[in-house]
Amino acid sequence: MANAYIVGAVRTATGRKKGRLSRMHPIDMGAAVIDELVDRTGIPTDKVDDVVFGVVMQIGAQAGNLGRNVAMSSKLALEVPGTTVDRQCGSSLQAIQFGAQAVMSGTQDVVISGGVEAMSTVEIGSNIRDGLEHGRGVPKGERLEMQYPGIQFSQFDGAELLAEKYGISREELDAFGLLSHQRAAAATKNGYFNDEIVPLNIELEDGSKDVHSVDEGIRFESTLEGMQSLNTLREGGVITAGTASQISDGAAAIMVANEEAVKKYNLPVRAKIHSLAVVGSDPVIMLEGPIPATEKVLERAGLTIDDIDLYEVNEAFGSVPLAWAKALKADPEKLNVNGGAQSLGHPLGGTGAKLMTTLVHELERRDARYGLVAICEGGGTANAMIIERMDQLDS
């Protein structure tokens, strides 16, 4: 089986809900990151075999096979196809896995995988609400109702159940939420994100023009007192708006290639995709999946958690990475070292590729070897992937 190499990784800076990116079409955001990959790698525009893009709310501006529309809006040749993936919050990490699998199998040589979500334009849950409003049914059939009678699957409930199961207190959550902002602020001030972010030309609400290149959700002056002053999202719960991911707009993309394409097109090797996994888990607690997904991907790689230099575990809620770290006895100093979705935002369909982009660049900055991405997903599934930093092909 061939190896799959990451030869490019870029993202936009995220925008807050109704913020700086709210007037930009999601297809244009996606095309911008693809164009940057083309420019940075020098790949001929007709030599990409496929574009695989994740997006969750496939309605309105994000309907009609967004992946193909993004490809057609980019510098890529018209002959390059595109498809769209929905694995909820892990959609773009799944897109990378699909791209890697295609390259490993030898059926394709170069794939651009990524994702986008314009949550200001296409609100979370809008596809379900549209179905209800127009009599198109609900996403829970008779058989699923028989297995989970009367249960409305909820990530908010899952976040609370996860905190309860793993003994995570409100104090721990508030401290971790603050740390996310502090780490993201430090990374921004130190320029750690500069190489991974694609500056976007934007139009502001007043009609003026600007360039968007800094993650908008970071609270540079966050305090623990401020975190502690927030009300919980559920009565008697421990999760607050400060310890939940931010609704965001943004896109990210990864270019994956095999050895033949790397040599043929002189592509820059950044990392090797070492192993990958996807699992199902309890859909009621829902957000616990990154734990078994990580166990599975480590076993496949023949590695232990201590072998991994950096972890990116999506901060859908603060309880997710904290439970993950407790269950796996992971070093918290390696976890989300430049902040996470509590500070940097969570543009649903684009988050997996966003985390992978940050991981690739941070491994390079630290001259570290192994990195792991894990992400929880609606419905009780989770993806995980291990990459190995390298700057040349395997000898």
Task: Describe the overall structure.
The chain is α+β, with helices and mostly antiparallel strands. It contains 13 helices and twelve strands. The strands form two sheets. Strands 1, 2, 3, 4, 5, 8, 9, 10, 11 and 12 form a ten-stranded mixed beta sheet that branches. The chain has a two-stranded antiparallel ribbon with strand order 6-7. α1 packs across α2, α3 (91-105) crosses α13 (351-366) and α6 (155-165) runs parallel beside α11 (319-328). 54% of the residues are buried.
The poorly predicted ranges are none
Q: Class by helix and strand content? A: alpha+beta
Mean pLDDT: 96
> Which descriptor suits the 3D outline?
globular
Total helices: the number is 13
**Helical proportion?**
25-40%
Question: What letter string, H or E per element, gives the SSE order?
Answer: EEHEHEHEHHHHEEHEHEHEHHHEE
Strand count: 12
Radius of gyration: 20 Å
As a percent range, the share of strand residues is: 15-25%
| Major sheet | 10 strands, mixed
Through-space gap between termini: 16 Å
What descriptive keywords fit this protein?
alpha+beta, 19% strand, ten-stranded mixed sheet, globular, two-stranded antiparallel sheet, 395 residues
Topology:
Elements: E1 5-11, E2 15-16, H1 26-41, E3 50-54, H2 66-73, E4 82-85, H3 91-105, E5 110-118, H4 126-133, H5 142-147, H6 155-165, H7 170-189, E6 200-203, E7 209-212, H8 224-228, E8 248-257, H9 259-265, E9 271-280, H10 290-301, E10 310-313, H11 319-328, H12 341-344, H13 351-366, E11 370-377, E12 381-389
Helix pairs in contact: 1-2, 3-13, 6-11
